[in-house]
Design goal:
Largest sheet of chain B: 8 strands, mixed
Helix content of chain A: 25-40%
Shape of chain B: globular
Oligomer: heterodimer
Radius of gyration of chain A: 21 Å
Strand content of chain B: 15-25%
Structural class of chain A: alpha/beta
Helix content of chain B: 25-40%
Number of helices of chain A: 12
Shape of chain A: globular
Largest sheet of chain A: 8 strands, mixed
Order of helices and strands of chain A: EEEHEEHEHHHHEHEHEEHHHEEH
Strand content of chain A: 15-25%
Number of helices of chain B: 11
Distance between the termini of chain B: 28 Å
Chain lengths: ~325, ~325
């Protein structure tokens, strides 16, 4: 597996907001890879930089440093037409399904928009592609094709967004909290649909969400972000079963399972994330970490591999702590 | 049986809209005892928020019709004048809303917002009210409460704001706290803090709590009983264990099995049900869940099932074709 080049390679990605006086690094040096056909989940609490990371990959926000390689092509230095061309290979789906669709356009035109922009298909061919896409996401094109977004529910709008994102046959799909606004029963439909389409279209996914259970359900690997940095990344099942970073462990402990027999953790993470305007020195989690020592304040822990494909940025990973 | 703090009988709330009557809540009956936590679970449009507001007696003045009965500590809320309701608001029943930013006055210092109740409702003087407000801020876990007394809501994080809202609700020492999605929109670690806080306060202040949420995870370990709502009606009610392990209504199962679980391996196929929650203005005849239900028959589409008692005490469901009882071994 590892001998094939990754589809996406991100190195030291940094996104800084603000002017020279007040600088806020929403993403502060993030590196990861996504192999073709893989789903990488990106979790973290609000303000951790997970959405900014997704947006920076699309160059919706400009990275201030680092590199992004999609199939070997550097994205950060490309501009103009070349960038537009590259963007057709990656598409993004946003949280609010209703506001991400143009309210004044018919559903079939919304889905056809990418095709029209690139003059990929016209006439009968265009209609065939659009009908096919709408059918794939479970929207009957003959009945609903001529309707407007306001005539659909949130779940249906998200289906339309998915159809639109697939129009250019992208390689990479970036999903930013795409099911967060949906009801439980609708969320399951969309997640299943996404899994089906991923297989059918050979998609690679970056799935950004705050819901740990949702992320685990769709992901092969999961990266956990805290205050602009990845603190742990690893195979989904391993990471959830034996987290190495104390933050991951707290996050999992705080997640609520719909099971009356699940243990109630008395020990919850105290406090709130510090302001990214003034991140703590050394390890960014140290101010809330029960295991923090002087070393954590002085030295920033690098992301190191503790098990195959499982890396953690902590001076005292939990498994080593248990051994002592 | 102990005295019931809250008795709801055949409660219905109907909004008169330009496109006809919209029955947001219908035929809801339940009791809530002292020092008990009741979870009300439902998707958007299930009527859970309207139900909690109706219990509180908060409705628009016009174009709404409430029938049935809500007794809070013996006080009939339905039909009571606003003036009479003020006698119980804050003092016997208080409410915590979902969005802490909109339930606080953005241009008023947070301490003053707690003061207001203490001074107006409890008649405390300025000094005593301030001291009590700081005590309340401390009670809800706000660090350095004396300094936070003077900040504005905008200077606080979402979790801290929700703590202030809870402090405001507790100011009049109510016996019943209605919490409508109190942790939706908060991060998981903050959510856990707030839920633990509510639990602790309930024990400490001997309150009863109604926890309204769309998230079964929130109520699973926090409430003793659960009401599952669909299209404005109770479709299943019972002890938390019964609802989770011995549910009979297919919709309850859909809710439980449709949400991904951390304990399942990744790429577990979700048991999704088709369709979406119905439009309340255009409800199907018969069982509202029938169009999405795989067991539905003609009877379901024509005749609405009433709540039927299940085997266990206090457990009831509304379904013509209840799920067979699967004995799930509980630890």
């Amino acid at each position: 597996m590892s001998d094939t080049a990754p589809l996406l390679r991100v190195r030291d990605l940094t996104v800084t907001y603000g002017t020279h006086r007040r600088k806020l690094s929403a993403v502060a040096g993030v590196s990861f890879e996504i192999r073709e056909g893989e789903t990488l989940g990106l979790v973290g609490e609000s303000g951790c930089g997970k959405s900014t990371t997704g947006r920076a990959l699309m160059r919706i926000v400009e990275p201030s440093a680092g590199s992004i390689e999609l199939e070997g092509t550097e994205l950060t230095t490309t501009t103009g037409k070349e960038l537009r061309q590259l963007r057709t290979r990656m598409q993004m789906i946003f949280q609010d399904p209703i506001s991400s669709l143009n309210p004044r356009r018919r559903v079939r035109d919304i889905v056809a928009e990418p095709l029209d922009c690139w003059r990929r298909a016209e006439g009968v061919e265009r209609t065939t592609i659009v009908n096919n896409l709408l059918g794939k996401v479970g929207i009957d094109p003959d009945v609903y094709g001529d309707r407007y977004p306001r005539q659909f529910s949130g779940g249906q709008c998200q289906r339309i967004s998915i159809a639109r994102s697939l129009a250019m046959r992208p390689k990479l799909l970036i999903c930013d909290e795409m099911v967060s606004a949906l009801d439980v029963s609708v969320q399951a439909q969309i997640l299943n649909l996404l899994e089906d389409l991923k297989a059918e279209y050979g998609l690679t996914l970056l799935f950004i969400a705050h819901d740990l259970a949702v992320v685990k359900n769709v992901s092969d690997r999961v990266a956990v972000m805290y205050l602009g940095k990845i603190c742990e990344i690893g195979p989904a099942d391993t990471l959830y079963e034996s987290p190495e970073h104390p933050y991951t462990s707290f996050l999992l402990g705080a997640a609520l399972e719909a099971d009356p027999d699940s243990p109630v953790r008395g020990e919850v993470l105290a406090g709130e994330p510090p302001s990214p305007l003034r991140p703590p020195s050394g390890c960014r989690f140290r101010t809330r970490c029960p295991n923090a020592t002087a070393k954590c304040a002085n030295e920033e822990p690098p992301l190191v591999e503790v098990a195959p494909a499982h890396s953690v940025a902590c001076h005292y990973p939990l498994s080593t702590l248990a051994r002592r | 049986m102990s005295e019931q703090l809250l008795v709801v009988r055949d409660l219905a709330t109907t909004f008169h809209t330009p496109s006809g009557p919209l029955r947001a809540v219908g035929g809801v009956s339940f009791d809530l005892g002292q020092n008990e936590t009741l979870g009300i679970v439902g998707e958007s449009g299930s009527g859970k928020t309207v139900l909690s507001r109706t219990i509180m007696g908060l409705q628009p003045r016009t174009n709404v019709e409430v029938t049935g009965s809500v007794l809070v500590n013996g006080f009939e809320v339905v039909g009571a004048s606003e003036r009479d309701k003020r006698a119980i608001w804050g003092l016997q029943v208080a409410m915590v809303f979902q969005d802490p930013m909109t339930s606080l006055n953005p241009v008023m210092r947070v301490g003053k917002q707690i003061d207001e109740i203490l001074r107006v409702r409890l008649g405390l003087d300025r000094r005593a009210a301030r001291d009590r407000a700081i005590e309340l801020l401390e009670l809800v876990g706000i660090p350095s409460p004396a300094e936070r007394y003077d900040v504005y809501p905008g200077e606080l994080s979402g979790g801290m704001r929700q703590r202030v809202v809870i402090a405001t609700a507790l100011a009049g020492s109510p016996q019943l706290l209605l919490a409508d999605e109190p942790t939706t929109g908060l991060d998981v670690t903050i959510q856990a803090q707030i839920l633990n806080l509510l639990d602790r306060l309930k024990e400490r202040l001997h309150m009863s709590v109604v926890l309204v949420t769309h998230d079964l995870g929130v109520v699973a370990t926090r409430s003793s009983r659960i009401i599952v709502m669909y299209a404005g009606r109770i479709v299943e009610i019972g002890s938390t264990r019964d609802v989770f392990a011995r549910h009979r209504m297919p919709y309850t199962r859909a809710l439980l099995e449709g949400s991904p679980k951390i304990s399942n391996p990744s790429h577990t196929r979700l048991k999704a049900i088709p369709g979406r929650p119905p439009n309340l203005a255009d409800l199907p005849g018969g069982c509202a869940f029938a169009p999405r239900c795989s067991f539905a028959t003609d009877r379901c589409r024509e005749e609405r099932p009433e709540l039927e008692p299940a085997g266990e005490v206090g457990h009831a469901f509304a379904c013509w074709h209840p799920l067979p009882l699967v004995q799930k071994v509980l630890a």
